[in-house]
Each structure stands twice: as C-alpha cells, then as structure tokens.
# Entry
Amino acid sequence: MLTLAVLISGTGSNLRALLEAASDPDFPARIVVVGADRQADGFAHAEAFGIPTIMVPYSEFASREEWGAELHAQLTVWRPDLVVLSGLMRLLPAAFVDAWAPRLINTHPAYLPEFPGAHGVRDALAAGATQTGASVIVVDGGVDTGPILAQERVDVLPGDTEHTLHERIKPVERRLLIDVVRRIATGDLDLSVYDTH
Ligand code: GAR
# Structure
C-alpha cells in the first residue's frame, strides 16, 4: 500500500477527490497526512475523513529555507512514500525538493510547459489561448519544469472567466492525479527513473 502526504494551500477540492478515491478498499494508496502552509479551508476534507493534519505557517518563519526544513521534519514523522502537491501555493526550497524528489509530484492547471507558475489559468486566458489543460509532474528545482507524468488538453470557451475555466480544468486534474497515484502504487509508473541523486 502506497502512503501519501498531500500538501495544500486552499480549498482542497482535488485533495477531496483523492480522499474519496483512497477510501475505496481496492485503491492501492492511502493518505496518511495532509499538510498546509496556512490554515487552509481544505483541512476540513482531511478532518471529514479522519486524516491527521499538519500546519506549518509560512508567515511565521524567517526564510523559505527554515519553513521548508520544518515542513520536511514534520512530514518525515509520517514516513509517506509519496508527497503530492495539490494546490500548495508556495515554492519549496531546494533542500526540501532534494530530500523528497522524485517521490514528490505536483498538479498544475495548464498544459506544461505552457503557463507555469502561480497563475496558470489566468495566464492562459490573458494569452488568448484557445486550449489549455492540466498536468501532473515530478517536482524538480524549477517552477513547474519537472518531468511530465500525465497531461490532457482542455478547451477555452468563449466567455470563460478564470473561475469557469479553472472549474473545468480541475476535474481533469483530479482524474489525472488519481490515475498517476494508482500507477505509481501498482508499479506501472516507476518514479526511480527520474531520480537525479
Ligand atoms: C489546482 O488547480 C492546482 O493545480 C493549482 O491550485 C488548484 C488547487 O485547487 N495549483 C497551482 O496552480 C500550483 N501552481 P483545490 O485547492 O481546489 O484543490
């Protein structure tokens, strides 16, 4: 059974989908802890499923490095096989990435390498793109530059706002994320090929 830590910053709707998938006894992964850099609304989903939470408030640390070291220390207690970034809106320090990668994956609401960064949906709209998408990647030292594990196109529709487009992308992200986690858990997808240590 693959054990997961999931890190969030916001509403955690993708976390919710993963919790629901993992509550199926036939699903080969379990979430052992949910973490966040703030008092995230998505903690409510973890609590509803009886999953422990850890909160490491970014604002209370003097540097990104110190915050990342504390997050790393608290995650280590739970010994997750895989860390899933599911809407964590913070860049992780290099030492954190080095400690967990390639067992560190991220979902992103764009068809990478198009529109990386914190505003993938807004940037696709601003660019006038007629298509964007969703991606699941291995985290590396860059911003959304790691190896792509799964991705799928989503059409931009006339009249789309950032909200309507994002709400159409998220179900695709969820499906891709759940499938990637399942493939990692069953051994169909071998993350060790992305190990750069
Ligand atoms: C998701 O679309 C996720 O890909 C995105 O934040 C959203 C979180 O939604 N992450 C990024 O943009 C990271 N650069 P949720 O909290 O409802 O799951």
Residues 8, 10-15, 42, 86-87, 107-109, 118, 120, 170, 173 surround glycinamide ribonucleotide (CB under 6 Å).
